[in-house]
Amino acid sequence: MNIILLGAPGSGKGTQAKRLEAVRNMAQLSTGDMLRQEITSDSALGRKAKGIIDAGELVPDGLMIELIAARIDQEDVRKGFVLDGFPRTTAQAEALDRMLQKKDLKLDRVVEMKVDENAMIERIVGRFTCAKCGAGYHDKFHRPATDNACDQCGGTEFTRRTDDTAETVRARLRAYHEQTVPIVSYYLNKGLIKSIDGMAPIDEVTHLVDEALG
Ligand code: AMP
Hints:
Blueprint: E1 2-7, H1 13-24, E2 27-30, H2 31-40, H3 44-54, H4 61-72, E3 81-84, H5 90-102, E4 109-114, H6 120-125, E5 127-130, E6 136-138, E7 158-159, H7 166-180, H8 182-189, E8 193-197, H9 202-213
Parallel strand pairs: 1-3, 1-4, 2-3, 4-8
Antiparallel strand pairs: 5-6, 5-7
Helix pairs in contact: 2-3, 4-5
The structure holds adenosine monophosphate.
């Protein structure tokens, strides 16, 4: 099954995509994670993307389409994939259609995770992850059981995304409205959209995603 998780920054796409990867053995294609890897490895793309990401803006379509086209070429995508963070513009959605058609693949479902955007700033600004195993935490909603040690691996170093500041989140929400929301009607017209309540507790959202996938 090939799907897209669509939703505002902080709506929980990454969390649910990881669960789909673990439970349904789908390949998680997260363009945000790919870009952060490019930044860590100090590649030419990473250097171009860093300032744009920290300003809360979108990386140009041409670069993103190239990045995802290379990923979709890889063999593991054939087992089924969950796109998390792509497409974010109509041009990207159209390019994705062309890419999939060329590879004889099709999109089965687009799950729109609906959230109260006023709550997103608090959700995003408080989040941090274990530097060793990547487990996710939150200052207010999900602290490690023992302060300063990861529940899952005992790691004691944690990281925060440089674009998870209140100011950048506001810009990211603006970009979502202006550039990403129009693709909801693009997929509505294709009959692919199912909308779910992304404000429910995480396990309940997982259940709703499952139902939406049928
Ligand atoms: P995310 O981890 O999905 O929140 O993405 C973090 C940032 O990476 C975004 O705010 C954008 O600056 C950039 N980014 C990720 N995916 C895309 C995309 N499909 N198109 C443009 N920019 C993207």
